């Protein structure tokens, strides 16, 4: 098979150059558009003329087909000319001639109609040529003809209007040259007018979501007429790019979406999609105004003379045959509701997103279609701190981001697996982890999370890692604990005038209290040095994980709880609270046999082995230095403040004078003073 292939070429589409891939075989010319994915095919037998000329500053070829259409491809290098000319001569029996352009800059010349193209010639060369299919309106005023063009959103600059002055001459006779010029344009441009004969089919009062309202849909051979109470739209069949037929989530309605390029306009609003809504039970009987032979000739047997069935089916089938486009329907994906529709919101508008076989389709407002080929990544993210729903962010290769929010949590696993099967990059942002996210519970089990954190802390104490030594050391917690014990231990330590025996206690009682106080102080110092977790009454402060440090694995109990335990207890006790679930889980785990527990213990063992490997690698690649630095920082933070002895001088509420060293001394001073006073009194009496 003889063919030529050129990547990185451009095809002229309504005033802009669309990049893509050009392939010229011995039978046809095929151009694949990179952005839209559309494929334009020109059969070799339909090519009537081919020329080599300058296009957009580079070399290109222009081809005329037998139906009068013009196709232009640019991006060739000059040495390719001979090779391309030889290919057309050999395979298509066509001579590729050079086409010169006029560079005089004159704005007067001769206008010729060649097929559906208007050529404006200055001398013997072309000044410019315009495909009349781009013309949207054509008006005349005296000797002037005005052409208005449909705007192209992809073009950086649009040709909006062009005016021709056509003077009257004696040779024209009774015929007005401007009117004759206009008739040529209208005929070649296929501008929709009301004088095109009877409609093929008419559907009355069809509910439209975009543009909003109820419209009569009138289908003609070359265009579709939407007739509403306020606005009318005439849509050429050649502007229809894609068709979608999507079921509503309630299974009672159907959406029929029509993608248009160029879009229809109403004021400053452009509608790239028509979205019609049909009730599934509505049916229509239709008889087409064609004979059986005409149906076979024009529509290749795709239509029947008498059509009967649901309205959405008749409309979509007729549209498909007229525009010669395939209808895209949902594929293998099935959501939690039993339909391919997923409820979500885009910005402030709620709607449905449909994961199709080749892309995402969002209906409605605005309708959005994103091809999988254009998707760079899909991010899963939490929605507003709640785990009842989640968001997805679709990032395209053009750096556009579409965020669809408030998706029900039940859709997560199905959507995640579907995207993975399509080999789309899936990421998670924020706290969401695609592989570990548990969306099976309605609320976060805070108690279970607390117990899990405690279990991980206790596991850390038994681990042989270098970081486990520092986990239990918390100077702030120890200081607070010491202060609490200082005040809650023995009230007699601080002393009070109301204590029994405080006025004239014996020396033996004083000595006993001093010894008790010294013993307690020694125990506190010992506890501080050992930092034993079992002696603590306050919850240890959770250790901050160092950068890159792997996370310790969950125990077998928590693996079971997350996988099956929590759901089992909820089913048995639907009204159980968080605390009841935690208690019930502990009882069930104790009652489970060794055989049932073994599965989760094995899982824990595998995760533990994996963690040990990751920790060793982290420790050797900079973790050791990070641990040393963390120890140093903690030591500096603990030693820079005041001593615990000074901090425990804080006075409890309600105590008038206890708590400070000064208050403690004043008690002894008072006792000594009282003794001295009584001794002095006795000596006075003796006198």
Reconstruct the topology from this structure.
Elements: E1 3-13, E2 16-25, E3 28-33, E4 39-43, E5 47-55, E6 58-65, E7 70-76, H1 80-92, E8 97-98, E9 110-114, E10 117-122, E11 125-131, E12 135-141, E13 144-149, E14 161-165, H2 177-189, E15 201-210, E16 212-219, E17 223-227, E18 232-236, E19 240-247, E20 253-266, E21 269-279, E22 283-287, H3 292-299, E23 306-310, H4 311-323, E24 327-328, E25 342-346, E26 349-355, E27 359-363, E28 368-371, E29 375-383, E30 386-396, E31 401-408, H5 412-421, E32 426-428, H6 446-462, H7 468-471, H8 475-488, H9 507-530, H10 556-572, H11 578-591, H12 594-639, H13 644-647, H14 661-686
Parallel strand pairs: 5-8, 19-24, 29-32
Antiparallel strand pairs: 1-2, 1-7, 2-3, 3-4, 5-6, 6-7, 9-10, 10-11, 12-13, 13-14, 15-16, 15-21, 16-17, 17-18, 19-20, 20-21, 22-23, 25-26, 25-31, 26-27, 27-28, 29-30, 30-31
Helix pairs in contact: 10-11, 10-12
